[in-house]
Design goal:
5 strands, about 35% strand, 3 helices, SH3 type barrels
C-alpha cells in the first residue's frame, strides 16, 4: 500500500508475529492507514487501532490488507443480497 491509503486487515500470516502485531493494535477486521513509507525498503508507519505504529517491512508483509474501497464494496454487495 502507498502512503495515506486505507484498508481492512483480513488476516495475519505468522502465528508468532501475530501476537506482537495484535498487541500493537493490528487485529483482523481493524481499519489501517499507511502514514509513512521510508525509502529504500526501510520501515513504514501505519495507523491502526488508534495508534501509530512503525513496522519493519518483514512484519508489514505478514498483514493481508484489503483496500478500503474493495472492503466497502463487499459490505454493500452483502447488504444488497439481504435486501
Amino acid at each position: 500500500m502507498k502512503p495515506f491509503e486505507k484498508g481492512i486487515i483480513d488476516r495475519i500470516d505468522c502465528e508468532d508475529g501475530a501476537l506482537a502485531l495484535i498487541e500493537m493494535g493490528c487485529c483482523p477486521g481493524e481499519e489501517v492507514e499507511v502514514a509513512h513509507v521510508a525509502p529504500r525498503r526501510g520501515p513504514m508507519a501505519i495507523v491502526s487501532g488508534g495508534r501509530k505504529v512503525a513496522l519493519r517491512r518483514s512484519a508489514a508483509a505478514l498483514l493481508w490488507v484489503r483496500p478500503l474501497v474493495a472492503a466497502t464494496e463487499a459490505v454493500l454487495s452483502t447488504e444488497r443480497a439481504w435486501a
